[in-house]
Amino acid sequence: MQLRRAAVLGGGPGGLYAARLLKLAYPACDVVVHEQGDPDTTFGFGVGLAAGTQRKLAAADPDTLRDLVAAGRRHDMTMRVGGRVARVRNDRLIGIARTELLAVLRQHAEKAGVRLEFGARRTADELDADIVLAADGVSSATRESGPFGGRIESGRGLYLWCGTDFALTDAVFAPVRTEHGVFVTHAYPYSGGRSTFLIETDEDTWRRAGFDSSTEATPVDASDEKSLRYLENVFAEQLRGRRLIGNRTRWLRFRTVRCDTWSAGRTVLLGDAAHTAHFSIGSGTKLAMEDAIGLVEALREEPDRAAAFARYETVRRPAVERLQELARRSRLWWESFPSRLHLPVERLMVAYMSRAGNVPLDRFAATSPDVVGAALEQFAGGPGPADPAAVTDWVLRHGTGRGGGNLVTIDEAPTDPWDGTGDAVVARARRAFDDGAEGFLFTGPPGRSALLTRLDLAERVRTEVGGPVVVEGPAALRDDLAAGLVSGRTDLVTLVNDPAGNPGRNS
């Protein structure tokens, strides 16, 4: 389609990148970015660009990617629990300061001929443009005032973004048990002298520490200094005695945004305005920049605006919804993280990598043989196979069976194993255990989503009530069952044939 004028609401990564790609695709088009904030003021610390996103940026705009990579910092990943460390190579992941990211994207947008206007709040209705790209963030005024059918779901756990003034060697996942409960940090370097420290906890711990009061007392443009000073002591080992730095830092609950439609008339939503995915697996920067690529491709290939917007959503929505589902499972795992601290760090790392069903055990074994090898020995009491391709079969040989004794069958399938329905299952299991049940058999629908949820529910009963616990699942999903065994989600598994031909892990 032809474009004369295009307006972008929001000067974040998605808006700036979309503006550049639009100008490159339509050199004669007048492309303007409207950002209500000041260009020298940004919030947040570092963001991550995964390998898959880098490949897509390389195909769409290699010049911009080159400068982003040069400004970023590669790192591996470690988990530290109880004095033990598990390390996973992940140096294709780049951490980059949000300030640097925006500076590079602004520079490349202006180089392409995009005009940037700062300091004024604009709305889609007042802009003279053929199309308006609303990249105005998770609190998008465009979405909230338009016919997009926006819905927001808040998580149970609480998190706090802060930083520190030195660069960690690796990304670090580290839980610390305090007098109030467990806090866990996800920290990673993003420049030569800076690291992001993201800290999570559950609501009970948050309240016991008095952070409900400090959050309420913290103005929206300030940082929660009470929390920062307390957490400096909690994570003194990881911080090496340094201070935590705030930047409008306060406790928040993650908000998952979904919309019935991403466009209306000449306006189309982009990035967090249209959808969000929990930070533990889905990056808002990743989704927004990939949205920009998909939108501009659709505009170039379709004859008119309506067809282009429809194509953009048709192509992007399945990928976004898949990532949102992975992110939902990851969020639930992190919100229940303290219940797993009894696991050796290597098995906990396997549990972390397989938490959303996105990393098969054999693939993880191929990239991190030391971690998986130790986890297999902890699981079965002896060394596992040298060939990563043989890991799943080996695990199932050691963990397939129905056990003995009086097993109570549980066939509930809640969407969230930690919600009220999950609470009721745990309560019934506890009563059955007190009445003489010797364990539990979890059965249910053969679909993959149902099996992953069944494994999570079984893990909760195994941890909170006792076992043995057996999970039944289709043979086609043997990879997920094997990962569940090594991760401590179940004691045994039973493979059944699925007459409906349930698809495997790539579904």
From TrEMBL:
The FAD-binding domain extends over 105-324
Which Gene3D superfamilies does UniProt cross-reference here? 3.30.9.20, FAD/NAD(P)-binding domain
InterPro entries the UniProt entry points to: FAD-bd (IPR002938), FAD/NAD-bd_sf (IPR036188), PheA/TfdB_FAD_monoxygenase (IPR050631)
Which is a Pfam family this sequence falls into?
FAD_binding_3
Q: Which residues form the signal peptide?
A: none
| Gene Ontology molecular function, alphabetical | FAD binding; oxidoreductase activity
Protein name as it appears in the record: Oxidoreductase
Asked if the record carries the keyword Oxidoreductase, the reply is yes
Q: Which UniProt keywords apply?
A: NAD, Oxidoreductase
